Amino acid sequence: MASLNESVFTWAAPPLKFGHGALDEIGAELAARGCRSVLVLADAGVVATGTPERVLESIRAQQIDARLYGTVGVEPTDVSINEAVAFAREGEWDAYVAVGGGSVIDTAKAVNLLTTHDGELLDFVTPPIGGGRAPSRPLKPLIAVPTTAGTGSESTTICVIDLLDQHLKAGISHPALRPSLAIIDPVTTMTMPPEVTAASGMDVLSHALESYTSVSFDAKPAPEDPMKRPAFCGSNPISDVWCEMALTLVGKHLRKAVMNGRDMHAREQMLLASTYAGTGFGNAGTHLPHANAYPIAGAVQNYQASGYPVMPMVPHGQAVSVTAPHVFRWTYPGDPERHLRAAQLLSGQTFTQTDGADALAGVLSQLMSDIGIPDNLGHFGYGEADVEGLVTGAMKQTRQLSVVPRPVTPEALTGIFRAALHGGS
Predict the structure, then answer these.
(1) CATH 3.40.50.1970: which residues of the chain?
(2) pLDDT tens, residue by residue, 319-332
(3) How much is the pLDDT for 2?
(4) β-pair partners for 142
(5) 296: exposed, middle or buried (C-beta count within 10 Å: 0-12, 13-18, 19+)?
């Protein structure tokens, strides 16, 4: 069996409610599930917008006991997640509600996992970084309310963690982590500053591009155990449809959302793009830009991102973008037609084989320039001496590397990181 190619792909997504006013239906959804006690998770920035309080009011209106944990870490670390887990273990909860971006939703996934199972975070993290343990018991219902048009975490099986001691990001991935319901209301994104809108939008774009250009599901080895197929199955006919739609919407609306945050139509369309891309990459999988992003974010020393809390961090959307033009120039030979099609969907222009590897790289670089996304690793404080460490960190991301459309070597990664040191496509 292991010598054969895969012939089956998997696809799944949570139920969702999308539209203006969806936020106020959370209480009814929890009541319908018979919940009596609910923990709502958010970070301090989201708490300040008032959205979590509105969620609490909806829940309490159904005579459900609800409590807020409002200090979730931005860019969650193993330390911040363990603090949230410790808080959650002090109570008995029938369900969890995550109100925020990927940081909050990923933290809620980890809290749900570690309050229904014994063990530690690293036990469940994907090998070779962690033990790869699979959940053995059902998790509690988790309702995800995204407040950024970006991470797609409301649709996925993935929880990303910054491991402080290892200066590296890693993930837990299992179908049990997927939220039970996504509540997507455009009003929740209206308070995002331009820098956050830009970075979140580039995350949407990365999800769609990486899933669309990932290795085809039927060009991968078949699993020895069909019940243990990896969460990232590679590009497939269903994910392709969602990714194409997401690419088109990002190309049309991201610039508008960044330039005028009160453009409700642009905000709504970017949330749709995020939802489409999330259902795409949550099945097909992200690849090299995300693998590169984890050590870039995990090893940062002093970079302060405008529009974000004052702390050393590279926002995820910036981390996945900075090497992306160079990655897609390198992956182009793996599927030229698909790379050209992606460039066309994103830009509205027509490209041919004559344009080659520069087509998608050029479209990406222009978009990044237009919305103020850093285009070089030097912007984050990295130099030539850091390349080896970044390569080592990226090579540990086996979940992403498994769907790259051409074989990844340390030498190839070294070339990509060096090209990204000084920017330009």
Answers:
(1) 21-184
(2) 999 999 999 999 99
(3) 47
(4) 96
(5) buried
CATH 3.30.70.270 fits 21-184, yes or no: no
| CA-closest candidate to residue 146, choices 275, 293, 307 | 275
Helix, strand, coil tally for the chain in percent (to 5): 50, 10, 35
Average pLDDT, the chain: 94
166-218 confidence digits (pLDDT tens): 888 888 989 999 999 999 999 999 989 999 999 999 999 999 999 999 999 99
Amino acid in the structure at residue 103:
S
- Whether residue 405 is predicted with pLDDT greater than 70 in this model: the reply is yes
> At the top level of CATH, which class does the domain 194-421 belong to?
mainly alpha
* Rounded Cα gap, residues 74 and 315, in angstroms: 9
Pairing of strands 158-163, 168-173: antiparallel
HEC assignment per residue over 335-392: CHHHHHHHHHHHHCCCCCCCCCCHHHHHHHHHHHHHHCCCCCHHHHCCCHHHHHHHHH
Cα dist from 394 to 24, 102, 159, 170, 222, whole Å: 41, 21, 17, 10, 24
Q: Where in the chain is the domain with CATH 1.20.1090.10?
A: 194-421
Q: Taking 80 as the threshold, does the pLDDT of residue 369 lie above it?
A: yes
* pLDDT tens-digit map of 62-73: 999 999 999 999
Determine the Cα–Cα distance for residues 86 and 176; give it in Å rounded to an integer.
21
Query: From CA 145, how far away is CA 166, in angstroms rounded?
Result: 30
> Are the C-beta atoms of 74 and 308 separated by less than 8 Å?
yes
Residue from 220, 106, 110, 100 nearest 149 by CA = 100
**CB-based contacts of 337, cutoff 8 Å, min separation 6:** none
Report yes or no: 292 and 323 within 8 Å, Cβ to Cβ.
yes
Tell me the pTM: 0.91
Q: Calculate the alpha carbon distances from 215 to 139, 197, 237, 310, 335 in Å.
A: 31, 29, 12, 38, 9
